[in-house]
Amino acid sequence: MIPRAGTIVLALCAGCAALAQPIEIDPAVRAVLTTHLRFSDGELDDVRRGRVAKHGLPSHAAGEVAVAGAVRINAPKAAFFVRVRDIARFKSGPDVLQIGRFSTPPVLDDLAALTVDEGDFDARSCRVGDCGIRLPAATIERFAREIDDKAPGAPSRASTLFKQVLLETVTAYMSGAGQVMQYDDGAKPIRPNDEFEAILAGMPEIGALMPALPDHLRRFPSNRLPDAEDFLYWSKEKFGMAPFITVTHVTIACPSPSMCLMTTRDVYSSRYLDASVALAIASDAGTGAFDLVYDNRSRANALKGMLGGLRRALTERRARGGLEESLKTVKMSLEKR
Description:
Blueprint: H1 5-20, H2 27-35, H3 41-48, E1 53-57, E2 64-73, H4 77-85, H5 87-90, E3 96-101, H6 137-146, H7 154-175, H8 192-201, H9 205-208, H10 213-219, E4 229-237, E5 244-256, E6 259-269, E7 275-284, E8 290-299, H11 308-336
Antiparallel strand pairs: 1-2, 2-8, 3-4, 4-5, 5-6, 6-7, 7-8
């Protein structure tokens, strides 16, 4: 029996609808999104349909800001990690003034492109308890001891010494010799490693998909994941009244062929940040597509105190907007490719 034309059309339309139905998010990733990152059903549907979903997350302490976002990208996830490894290109933008990746082991020439002028660091006005950037007391005293601020060329020598101190900080971190335990630039000392531990304890999503990953970050490099890829980069970025210089540790690890995770940890920031940790999840969503999930928690001393609530609200709003723009940019660049 030959079916009527209308029956054929209806059957074809039903098939088209089935083909157009978005592929579901990986169940393990979906559990992280709903349980830890508080995505609603509507936001999950946005992700499945290729739209950016983003929102703020509850803070666990005064001075903390947290955001999360996700989007589906019609490109292989391998392309995303190719871009990440080329960090200077990946982070390029109007707010990133300078950037470079550290060698393994790091060398001073890795910082050749970094300029450190008096707006970045003025050694003449830097004292223990009163310094324009984050430094330990011993380092502040070292600048006072080694730099004669009345001698010709003092700013240039201070810039060179700052780069040397930055290199020593990165070398110690990468070799396991130690981390910066305390900054003494203000009236109240800041202990960045304590802040990092507190942030990590409040991000169970990092261990939900790869249980050994938190210890990799906590005890790096002594307790490294066997197949993890790690690198550090520095950047000089615009933010607030003055730019800041920061060093970031990137880890890439894949718990399965269909999923890879990337974490970033703030190792040093000359201003603003006390600690910052971020997680990116890239999971396959059908042939030639993947879901990209990102969340970040950061702590800043400036977001505490009497006006801390207002500053935190403004910072979170800016962070949400920046995250949305970043996800859109990554999606557009990868899909264009």
